[in-house]
Queue: 2 jobs
Job 1
Amino acid sequence: MALIQLVQENIVKTPLESTDKPDVLRELVQILKDAGEIDDFEAVLTAVQDREDKQSTGLQDGIAVPHCKTRAVTRLKLAIGLAPQGIDFNSLDKAPSKLFFLLVAPPDMAGPHVQALAEIAKLAQSKAFCKALANAESAAEAVELLQGE
């Protein structure tokens, strides 16, 4: 399944209201809950937090990809949060993160999870695209940008 097939307005939020890492994780999981993509908010949040506690998923160039595997989902789920102001996410390059891609997959579904991570890495290679996405003024604009890539 291509990542782009998962992107729809109800799983994109811009701007994020959060100002720190724990709140970003909570807000991203809430996006999935509000979109009807997950039932068990606490199970997903705990799985994401546990994964993040092992090693930060803040990459570089303003991108963070918090992700986890949990039995609380039966297929790959995606939430996207945009924070033009940047949020400290303990990233590899120590720069604030502006683009957040939350991936949640069931434990037995490695293929789509890895494929989605690879697609995000590919998107991240274009600095101009990342800047445009971080500055999208609406979920609709973000979806349009992502589907145009």
Job 2
Amino acid sequence: MKNTMKKVGLGILVLLVVIQFIRPDKNIQTAKATHHISKLYPVPVAVEATLIKACYDCHSNNTYYPWYNNLQPVAWWLNHHVDEGKHEINFDEFASYRIAKQYKKMHECIEEVEEGEMPLNSYTWIHKNAILTKEEKTTLVSWFKSIQDSIKANYPADSLVLPKKK
């Protein structure tokens, strides 16, 4: 029994060492984002500061990676979160979205911030500075609403509806 436990332990150790060499690509863009949201809508300094501290790690093309990202399987888990976040909204690609999608994404951002769903609890456990204050939430929501208002003012209502998926 003791010999079997040693073999299992050694097998787990070898597996942990081997997976250290299987790394996902990092979400780091060196070029200036050509489709950043600021290309279409003004981003006040206070909003940009909040986006940087609480949103961009998962919702942009540039993630700041902490030291523990060098450990597998943690890097895989972080990579999955970044991929999911960018799929939901990517502020670096926002200007490339269709108008209906821009409008919908702003609506979703409003809901997520108002309901306290963003940033994720799993993110704020480690990144305490990403916890949004009441004022930051109000500022973000107001900004998101201003973008929606701008879209509404410049586009017909029927262009703000996304086609239904088949």
